[in-house]
Design brief:
The complex is a heterodimer of chains A (229) and B (392).
Chain A (H helix, E strand, L loop, with lengths): L10 E10 L5 E11 L4 E5 L6 H8 L7 E6 L2 E2 L5 H11 E4 L11 H6 L12 H11 L15 H13 L5 E5 L7 H16 L3 E6 L2 H6 L2 E6 L2 E4 L1
Parallel strand pairs in A: 3-8, 3-9, 6-7, 7-8
Antiparallel strand pairs in A: 1-2, 1-4, 4-5, 9-10
Helix pairs in contact in A: 4-5, 5-6
Chain B lengths: L2 H14 L1 H41 L1 E5 L13 H6 L4 E8 L7 E4 L11 E9 L3 H4 L3 E5 L4 H6 L3 E5 H7 L9 E4 L2 E10 L10 E4 L1 H4 L9 E6 L4 H12 L8 E3 L5 H8 L4 H28 L1 H9 L4 H38 L7 H28 L2 H5 L1
Parallel strand pairs in B: 4-9, 6-8
Antiparallel strand pairs in B: 1-10, 1-11, 2-4, 2-10, 3-4, 3-7, 5-8, 6-9, 7-8
Helix pairs in contact in B: 1-12, 2-9, 2-10, 2-12, 2-13, 10-12, 10-13, 12-13
The chains are: A alpha/beta (229), B alpha+beta (392).
Chain lengths: 229, 392
């Protein structure tokens, strides 16, 4: 029997490199290997230009590594066709962005419901699921609000609710507190703690000490090389 | 992706900037309106030309009765047989002769050296249905009736032009005209003729009174038919008027109206059609332009959607549908405005508006097509965007 282990890692990067063609070629990721198990809470820290964003893009299936392997939930993604990568991205990964990316003309609930329209979930019960996700992040009282009337922390929580819809295997956060003040940062980090306690796998890319300290694991990326601390 | 979701997203995208979307539709609205108005007014006016043609010419049948020495070919009472035919609206028999064409007519017996009082007018005899047969009306007074005819009353009806020339202004004084020295009481003035307009300057007397001027036999019969009945009546009239001698009568019937209709429709104003097409083109460029701007503005949204699992075709479909909806909206508004304009023009000209239903349906479809074509390039740009770049 090849694998009797129940716990399959959510993320398994093996010797991943990402080169950008230019003169001379830039190696943004150099032989990165990483395992993130289910329920892990990993913070990736590093200065700007260190390859953080490239790593996030690779992890989020937004970019393909030049070489190496990336298994997401045991699926080898580097050989997948574009269409399958897109589907995998929609189904398995919930993104949380620094700038929230909420559609300004839609209500909070509609913004959350947006997460389901490309993944083939039935329309029936979509609103209920969105409301449940909003309840989960403590925004049950802001359902019909336009994002413009929410505070920064509330907006990010709405974005997290959207990421949670569809029960992704991985919550991938790109500087989730970059636009928030310390009080709202605390609220979002508190929420991450709760989600982690519920078994959610979280990868946070950040340059903030405070954020990385709350994570269970920390890895530092410098000049494309990843080192766990 | 559910089609309803796609439509919902496209509608939401369009309504996110309602003013911009409304302005974007303007070009299509103008183009479609121009096309609908041009085609609609052309069709309406074309129909109107045919209608006028129908009324005045296509329903007018004239029977010429050649002169005979002995027995008249058409008797005065034969007109009753003619009016009984189905399809005949009105008919009248006329007796005209060269003798009657230039009779001196005076309105009084006094000789006024200062003005010309004696006019040389046409005098003719007619049956009682003349006002209807010439599509005129009695401007003043009345036409003579069967009683006048039977009694041989010396009454006359004069055309409005003749009344002006003779100075007959009012009838309550029972004015008389002297035809060749014989006095006749004027009981009516006939005007507004739409057929046989030369009767406006004529003096009409009952057949029984016309014998004195050599107006003995029927020389012409005027018939008005229902629309489309002219051909039939033209065939039947000779037999009705002169049983047995029908082939000696000459019937003047209108030509078939189809040719006139064809000609009118070819008259559609090509210039305005081109103008409408140019407006549509401008509208398409406008939609393409604005959609492209919208795509550039919504790069982050495109990135977000890609991160949520949207494939390139989903992005393309959404922007394509948005521009199509804008075009469709413009088409619907344009078609509506165009139809209203056609009706307004028709109302102003007292025409019957005529609009092909297919045109009213095709116009919004054309608008949608314009939007679809205009959206192709922006949608392609949106779909080609790399999610990594879009989210940056």
């Amino acid at each position: 029997m090849p694998e009797t282990i129940v716990e399959q890692p959510v993320i398994e990067l093996a010797d991943v490199c990402r080169d950008f063609p230019s003169q001379p070629p830039v190696r943004a990721l150099a032989h990165v290997s990483l395992r993130v198990g289910r329920g892990d809470y990993l913070a990736i820290v590093g200065p700007s230009g260190s390859g953080k964003s490239t790593l996030l893009n690779v992890l989020g299936l937004l970019d393909r590594p030049t070489s190496g392997h990336y298994r997401l939930d045991g699926t080898e993604t580097t050989t997948l066709r574009e269409r399958d990568r897109t589907r995998l991205r929609g189904e398995r990964i919930g993104f949380v962005f620094q700038s929230f990316h909420l559609l300004p003309h839609r209500s909070v609930a509609e913004n959350v419901m947006l997460a389901e329209i490309y993944t083939g979930q039935p329309r029936a019960g979509r609103r209920d699921r969105a409301l449940a996700a909003l309840e989960r992040v403590g925004l049950g009282h802001r359902v019909g609000f336009p994002p413009g009337r929410l505070s920064g922390g509330e907006r990010q929580r709405a974005a997290i609710a959207r990421a949670l819809l569809g029960s992704p295997s991985l919550l991938l956060c790109d500087e989730p507190t970059g636009n928030l003040d310390s009080r709202n940062t605390e609220a979002v980090l508190g929420l991450f703690d709760e989600l982690r306690a519920q078994g959610m796998t979280i990868v946070v890319i950040t340059h903030e000490q405070e954020v990385s300290e709350r994570a269970g694991r920390r890895a530092r990326i410098t000049d494309g090389t990843l080192q766990e601390e | 992706m559910d089609v309803r979701d796609l439509i919902g997203e496209a509608v939401a995208g369009m309504l996110a900037r309602p003013v911009r979307s409304a302005l974007t539709t303007l070009g299509t609205v103008l183009g479609i309106t121009t096309l609908v108005v041009t085609l609609g007014v052309a069709a309406t006016a074309g129909n109107q030309i045919v209608g006028r043609f129908d009324e005045l010419v296509a329903t007018a049948v004239t029977v010429e009765v050649p002169e005979t020495d002995d027995v008249p070919l058409v008797r005065w009472d034969a007109i009753d047989r003619l009016t009984r035919l189905r399809g005949v609206v009105s008919a009248a028999a006329l007796a005209e002769s060269e003798d009657g064409a230039n009779l001196s007519v005076r309105s009084n017996d006094l000789v006024d050296p200062a003005r010309v009082t004696t006019r040389s007018l046409t005098v003719l005899a007619a049956s009682t249905g003349l006002p209807e047969a010439v599509r005129g009306r009695m401007v003043r007074g009345r036409f003579y009736d069967a009683g006048h005819v039977r009694r041989g009353d010396r009454v006359a009806v004069i055309g409005d032009e003749a009344a002006r020339m003779l100075g007959v202004a009012r009838l309550d004084t029972a004015p008389a005209v002297f035809i060749d020295g014989h006095a006749y009481t004027v009981i009516g003035v006939l005007g507004d003729l739409r057929r046989e307009r030369n009767l406006a300057s004529a003096v009409v007397v009952p057949p029984t009174a016309g014998r004195r001027f050599g107006l003995r036999d029927v020389s012409r019969v005027l018939v008005n038919t229902d629309l489309g009945a002219a051909g039939l009546i033209a065939r039947q009239a000779p037999a009705a008027l002169s049983p047995g001698n029908g082939d000696m009568l000459q019937v003047v019937a209108p030509s078939s109206p189809t040719r006139a209709r064809d000609g009118a429709q070819e008259d559609a104003n090509a210039l305005f059609l081109i103008l409408g097409l140019v407006s549509l083109l401008v509208g398409a460029v406008g939609i393409a332009n604005v959609t492209l701007v919208t795509v550039m503005e919504r790069v982050a949204e495109i990135g977000l959607r890609r991160s949520l699992g949207a494939a390139r075709r989903h992005i393309a479909a959404q922007f394509l549908l948005e521009s199509t909806l804008i075009g469709l909206t413009g088409g619907v508004i344009g078609a509506s405005v165009g139809v209203v304009a056609v009706v307004a023009v028709s109302a102003a000209k007292q025409w019957t508006p005529l609009l092909d239903v297919r045109l009213a349906i095709a116009a919004p479809v054309a608008g949608a097509l314009v939007g679809l074509l205009a959206g192709l390039y922006p949608a392609m740009r949106a779909a080609r965007m790399e999610p990594v770049d879009a989210l940056r």
